[in-house]
Write a structure and sequence with these properties.
The chain is α/β, with parallel strands linked by helices. Helix content is about 30%, strand content about 30%. The radius of gyration is 17 Å and the shape is globular.
């Protein structure tokens, strides 16, 4: 957080919720040493979880731009490949697809990595293509979990995935219709992927 990643204001989050604080992942990820330190925490915790479950990690997968960087560094630390899935927009809801050339072996034991978790939606969106490829997701990991009540990624029809967070912060978020900042007329910004 010494990188200025925790910001205050009125923010529209990618999840659609509103908050008075925003974690700017790029304030951290632009510093390779700081990002590597966070990835080392994630890798160590993931390895401990895998060993505790008597399993291994074969592949690390990230679902977002920040997740790309994290997947490669965590994969490097674990001695496995790191790949990513891109968001594809079509006629229906956005979905994730793996970049051409990325191969997922059947039954590959996969660690999902992402940057900031509010609702877990980005990680959940990554699961259908993994399951379709025959992979076996074993856990999800994030730089920061801003919703401490989320301790696992729920997957309908599958076992929930334990959640690993390098940092956990209790940062309130609100539905737009019940946002106290909106009620006070505070102007809102939409940082991150919106570019604003």
């Amino acid at each position: 957080l010494a990188t200025g990643a925790l910001q205050r204001g009125h923010y529209l989050l990618k999840s659609g919720r509103h908050s008075d604080r925003y974690l700017e992942k790029w304030s951290l990820l632009q510093y390779p040493e700081a990002a590597a330190e966070i990835c080392a925490i994630i890798a160590a915790r993931a390895l401990a979880l895998a060993r505790g479950a008597a399993t291994e990690i074969d592949l690390v997968v990230g679902p977002t731009t920040g997740g790309v960087l994290l997947a490669f560094e965590v994969g490097r630390l674990l001695g496995v490949r790191g790949i990513f899935a891109e968001e594809v927009r079509g006629d229906g809801a956005p979905r994730r697809e793996f970049r051409r050339g990325f191969h997922i072996p059947p039954r590959a034991r996969v660690l999902l990595v992402d940057d900031i978790l509010t609702t877990g939606g980005s990680l959940q969106a990554l699961l259908p293509p993994l399951y379709a490829a025959g992979a076996h997701p074993i856990a999800a990991a994030v730089i920061a979990n801003r919703t401490p009540s989320i301790t696992a990624i729920e997957v309908p029809g599958h076992e929930s995935l334990p959640l690993i967070a390098a940092l956990t912060l209790d940062i309130a978020s609100h539905a737009a219709e019940s946002c106290p900042l909106c009620a006070n007329g505070e102007p809102i910004g939409a940082p991150g992927s919106s570019g604003r």
